[in-house]
Design a protein that fits this description.
alpha+beta; Dihydrodipicolinate Reductase, domain 2; 5 helices
Length: 190
C-alpha cells in the first residue's frame, strides 16, 4: 500500500506551530495513517525521513515526509506527506494478490481490478459533511454506530507520533508494543 497526502498549509495561525497542532503528520496525515492501520493492521515499526526546507518561514515542523510502515500482518506500506504542495492530492494505491486498487479520496473515486474483474466507483455528495454529521451524532450520543472508537483513535495518534519521530530522526523507530486500550493514565505530548 502506498499513499500520498499532499496539501497546502491551512490559513490558520495555530496550525503552523508544532506545539499547538502536532505538525503535518499528526494533524493532517493522521487520516492516512488511520487508513493504513485499518487496511493492513497494527504497525510494529516506522522508518522515515523528512525535510523542513520548503516552508522555512511558515511552519516550525517538517513540511515533507516519507515514512515506511511495517505491519504485524507482514504488510509493508508507505506514506508520502507534504503541506507544501500547490496541488492537493490524497491517493491510496493497494496491491495485493489478485488485486490492484487506487482510491482518489479528493475525487471520490476507486478504480482497479480484483480477481481479474474491473472495479470502478465514483462517489457522490459531500463526504466531508457526512463525516462531520456522523461525528456530531456520535459525540452527542445519538448514535452507537461509530466506526472508530476513542481508544482506536488514540492508537492512531500514537502511530503518527511514532512516524513523526522516525521522520525527524531519519531512522527506524519501533512502535509501542503496548498500545493497550486502557488510555486513562496515558499522557500524550504533541
Amino acid at each position: 500500500m502506498d499513499s500520498t497526502y499532499w496539501v497546502s498549509p491551512p490559513e490558520t495561525p495555530w496550525w503552523c506551530e508544532r506545539t499547538r497542532s502536532g505538525g503535518q503528520i499528526v494533524e493532517q496525515s493522521t487520516h492516512v495513517y488511520d487508513l493504513h492501520r485499518y487496511l493492513a493492521g497494527e504497525v510494529t515499526a516506522a522508518t522515515g525521513s523528512g525535510t523542513d526546507r520548503v516552508l522555512v518561514d511558515s511552519v516550525d515542523f517538517q513540511d515533507a515526509t516519507s515514512v515506511t510502515l511495517e505491519h504485524e500482518s507482514g504488510a509493508v506500506s508507505h506514506v508520502s506527506s507534504t503541506c507544501a504542495s500547490p496541488v492537493s492530492r490524497f491517493e491510496v494505491r493497494i496491491t495485493a494478490e489478485n488485486a490492484s486498487l487506487e482510491l482518489d479520496y479528493f475525487e471520490h473515486s476507486l478504480s482497479g481490478s480484483v480477481d481479474g474483474e474491473p472495479v470502478q466507483f465514483e462517489g457522490a455528495g459531500d463526504w466531508y459533511q457526512r463525516e462531520f454529521e456522523a461525528f456530531l451524532r456520535a459525540i452527542s450520543s445519538e448514535s452507537t454506530d461509530v466506526r472508530s472508537e476513542y481508544d482506536d483513535a488514540v492508537r492512531t495518534l500514537e502511530l503518527t507520533l511514532t512516524a513523526r519521530a522516525a521522520a525527524e530522526a531519519g531512522n527506524r523507530t519501533e512502535s509501542s508494543s503496548n498500545m493497550s486500550s486502557d488510555i486513562s493514565d496515558r499522557e500524550i505530548n504533541l
